[in-house]
Amino acid sequence: MKEFGLWIDGRSVPARAGRTAPTLDPATEEPWATVAVAGPDDVDAAVAAARRAHASGVWRKKSREERGAILMAIATALFERQDEI
User: How far apart, in whole angstroms, are the C-alpha atoms of residue 78 and residue 33?
Assistant: First the structure.
């Protein structure tokens, strides 16, 4: 069974409290993965990471064209994996 963590500060991490929850395949109603369940400490860590990323200016300093290309690449990847997602 697949396991998914929380995406914080550019990496997948387990929930600090260790909580997970099963996810069900809607077609079969069978569990297919477990996902980390965020708690208040995880939210604080995610907000702090987002603030650091914003303050760095990495995204802000990119041109409209660069940001557009990145968003298009994300959309393409999502489209290509739509059956899995």
Answer: 19
